[in-house]
Design brief:
With about 400 residues, the chain is α/β, with parallel strands linked by helices. The protein contains 10 helices and 17 strands. The N and C termini lie far apart (about 50 Å). The structure holds zinc ion.
Amino acid sequence: MTAKDEHIAVTRFREFLRVKTVQPKPDYVGCEAFLKKYAEELGLAYTGVECVKGKPICILTWAGTDASLPSIMLNCHSDVVPVSADKWTHDPFAADKLENGDIIARGAQDMKCVGIQYLEAIRILKQQQKVQLKRTLHVTFVPDEEIGGQDGMKLFVKTDDYKKLNIGFALDEGLANPGDAYKVFYGERAPWWLTITAKGKAGHGSQFLEPSATVRLLKVLNRFLAFRDSESNRLKHGRTAKSVPFQLGDVTTTNITILKAGVQHNVVPETASAGIDIRVAPTVDLNAFKEMIEGWCAEQDVGIEYVNTFWSNATTAPEDHNPWWRLLKGVAEKRKVDLEPEIFPAATDSRYIREIGIPAFGISPMRNTPVLLHDHDEYLNERVFLDGVDFYTDLVPALANNTEELVER
Ligand code: ZN
């Protein structure tokens, strides 16, 4: 296929992939310029909000006909993770397209494809189908998701600019699926990064010095390891209420990632510490969990520091009482695509949205596609990409014309 007869959506996708929004120094200026021009092309209103200077939240808005209904946020993060260029067979920012339609670039799956799919669906709805939607749509492109969203979504949801958008429901990213279904992420595990520190008596390594910092630390770490084993077992044998085998997102993972103690073999250290990465499953009561680990530490008089801890593991029910789920399911059925609801194994910006009580699903419509996010030679086939545009062309009006809100139970 020559560039001349390439689908406009594919052309815009490849253009966006060439904007080097790669961490640690993303080209957010180039990104904003690209999106502003895009908004103009599609006849969408453009607003730029900066919670932190130089890190714009780009909002492309299509006003609905009924301002009394809360709006819909279609979210995409604009940054991508770094590359090891020597491991790639193509320039990761050239967005080369192979004979078979594979488009190779950093961000092809995570998640520039989705941002362009939203906008190209809007192009079809606006310009070809000439429809008018009830609810307002805000397509948001947020910075720094790949480094935790601290200067992006985390701050944005607390601003008046965000409140003014009056968002009632959000879509965000998911993952590719090698199988034939779309994964729908309805919750995430809460990341907890802890440092625990034990203190003891220092001295010559030839004695029984009590209390011992390393002994105390190890006793506590053994508690964490026993818990790790039991969760690993649950992952192997557990099943959800619907009898689906557990996925990683259904259990809590614990990893001791940092260990520090001592300077010399014959000197008993005064302090010993460990860094622990825990991802707490949404089924866990966070307060009870906190009490449990603080209890383990208290037994050995070990201090605990919450380095980076997310205190919410709210989910959005993938159940029929939730109108947003029903609509998503209805569109998928019409398009003959199965949906697989799951807990996201890592963290995305959706957690900040759900934390403030807004229902959100994470979905990246890529099936029969290997999971290549953050990997070398990340690619997406243009047929899969265009199928995703069609998916949103069906889904967006279903959501935007919905007049029901989710009543939690
Ligand atoms: Zn992502």
